UniProtKB/TrEMBL annotation:
The gene is Dmoj\GI22454. GO terms for molecular function: citrate secondary active transmembrane transporter activity. It comes from the Eukaryota. The lineage of its organism: Eukaryota, Metazoa, Ecdysozoa, Arthropoda, Hexapoda. PANTHER family: SUCCINATE/FUMARATE MITOCHONDRIAL TRANSPORTER-RELATED, TRICARBOXYLATE TRANSPORT PROTEIN, MITOCHONDRIAL. InterPro entries: MCP_dom_sf, MCP_transmembrane, TXTP-like. This is Citrate transport protein.
Length: 319
């Protein structure tokens, strides 16, 4: 019997069209796309964090700043000024090494997961449905949260928080990580995992949904139409802004759960409740302005760099 003549509706793979005629070849292509995403994403992550880190530093300091006698900063400019006066210009880069070590696997996990999931979810025209965009972005965010973001963010917040004390304990990345693990065990670098999964999952679901939707809108009826890189950057900035307004409250809770005083919170829900009781609803949007600036720049640059590397890889690295 000529299997090529069997109608699609009679195929056992009718819900997995990539398995009908292409079989293992299509599955391998999906894996290849995921591998391209991992490599391109890793390179992108290392470049991006070196550009945007000072805004991340200021955002974290403002989120850690509590009301009352312990309040240290009166805003973004005051935070920058006091940091430079006390630590010099490179004080704004305190903790950068932590993010460099973490940004490469974080970005690699995010884009690798998205490309793999995307390759399994596109229709015959190579496009994602709206629900597909959200689910692929959500999967990418959960993957990066577990693989890299939670330990990286916990260590980063503890390093920045340590600098706020009169006598900082951590003398460098290796020493700081060793001290954290010695005091709290390996779980000490996995504080706030559930909050981070919620944050990263919602972050990437929003960003990839907006990004893919704007690209589809620009391409119109031609799915193969190339999107100019500057426009990709602009789309990325819009996607970043959408994610900031959508999940800053989760980011604040995550930051508190990963700080040096996280022990006073029983869990993520208790942390959110204490912030609400003691500081009011506005506290959930602390650091929004510096985060908005960092994220728009971050996401715009990230998608521009990533798209550029993927264009090169697609030419020299065949599926």
């Amino acid at each position: 019997m000529d299997r090529s003549r069997v109608p699609l509706l009679l195929s056992p793979y009718q819900n997995r069209p990539w398995m009908v005629n292409d079989g293992a070849a299509a599955a391998a292509a999906g894996g290849s796309k995921g591998l391209k995403g991992i490599v391109a994403g890793g390179i992108t992550g290392g470049i991006e964090i070196c550009i945007t880190y000072p805004t991340e530093y200021v955002k974290t300091q403002l989120q850690l700043d509590e009301k009352g006698a312990n309040k240290r900063y009166n805003g973004i400019v005051d935070c920058v000024k006091k940091t430079v006066n006390e630590r010099g210009f490179f004080g704004l880069y305190r903790g950068l090494s932590v993010l460099i070590y973490g940004s490469i696997p974080k970005s690699a996990a995010r884009f690798g997961a998205f490309e793999y999931l995307r390759s399994k979810s596109v229709n015959s025209q190579g496009q994602l449905s709206n629900s597909g965009k959200l689910l692929c972005g959500l999967g990418a965010g959960v993957c990066e949260a577990i693989v890299a973001v939670t330990p990286m963010e916990t260590i980063k917040v503890k390093f920045i928080n340590d600098q706020r004390s009169a006598n900082p304990r951590f003398k460098g990345f290796a020493h700081g990580v060793g001290e954290i693990i010695k005091a709290e065990g390996i779980s000490g670098i996995y504080k706030g995992l559930s909050a981070t999964i919620l944050k990263q999952g919602s972050n990437q679901a929003i960003r990839f949904f907006v990004m893919e939707s704007l690209k589809d809108l620009y391409k119109g009826d031609d799915p193969n139409k190339s999107v100019p890189k500057l426009l990709v950057g602009a789309f990325g900035a819009v996607a970043g802004a959408a994610s900031v307004f959508g999940n800053t409250p989760l980011d604040v809770v995550k930051t508190r759960m990963q700080g040096l005083e996280a022990s006073k919170y029983k869990n993520t829900a208790d942390c959110a409740l204490q912030i609400l009781r003691n500081e009011g609803p506005a506290a959930f949007y602390k650091g929004t302005v510096p985060r908005l600036g960092r994220v728009c720049l971050d996401v715009g640059i990230t998608f521009m760099i990533y798209d550029s590397f993927m264009d090169v890889f697609n030419k020299i690295w065949k599926d």
